[in-house]
């Protein structure tokens, strides 16, 4: 074998070994394969109602002395969404999953899939609703319930409701997930670490049903990557299912405010921040702004907020988020039947 060919082969082998070992680079660790087998009957109406928020509030003064940060916004009281949710905010729903501490909840948004126009099975949410972050692993038994508690039932009426009224479009199991590698490397349950990369995309299916999520609920939200900075957006609307007191996670709420900027670290992207009194459980819920055509498009998701629940912050979705979204669409296309 010629010397130059032996050298090339040796170089290739060395490069592969370095990647596998993670040596000599700052790349995040390789993720184990996502696995989320369907467990029939697991997410009953009672188990959904008993799930609790996984969110941990951040310190009040986060970002004040780091990078670009605007003054703290005034609190904006969360407004209850009008029922029936399927008629007013069908793309919004609750995400349920199991952590080592038990059943937990977040919020999510059904979004378009350019690879499957009109037949999307993609759901946008926060990374910490899917993966535990640095030193952690994927959560288990992840499902999406669009228009959860569609009629905003409360008290005895909620307890007496059957599964079809609590999950009017059914329970959708995640069979694929993409999470930002920076979240896997840096994400933490407190302090805001990793929050500029706290986003994820799920691909979901409903067992025994051939129709996609979008076909079933009738719509999916467009995603706007590279939306302007906070200084160039007049208003953002934020939706979610807050589950920590004084809320109980059973109803959908929203806030609208002019966004500001929040930095967690000066060497990382700046987050959007709005005044909003929604609490834990609203994490992963979609943030919307008007795109250049005047249509509402998803531009962020709830990531962090302080203990006194006066504001929320979410990542600005740039090129890396767009690539993650593309990977989720590619996975959906290869795993779905025509």
Automatic annotation (TrEMBL):
Gene3D superfamilies the UniProt entry points to: Trypsin-like serine proteases (2.40.10.10)
Positions of region (Disordered): 54-74
Highest taxon in the source lineage: Bacteria
Molecular function via GO: hydrolase activity
Protein name: Trypsin-like serine peptidase
PANTHER family associated with the record: PEPTIDASE S1 DOMAIN-CONTAINING PROTEIN (PTHR15462:SF19), SERINE PROTEASE (PTHR15462)
Keyword Hydrolase: yes
Record keywords: Hydrolase, Signal
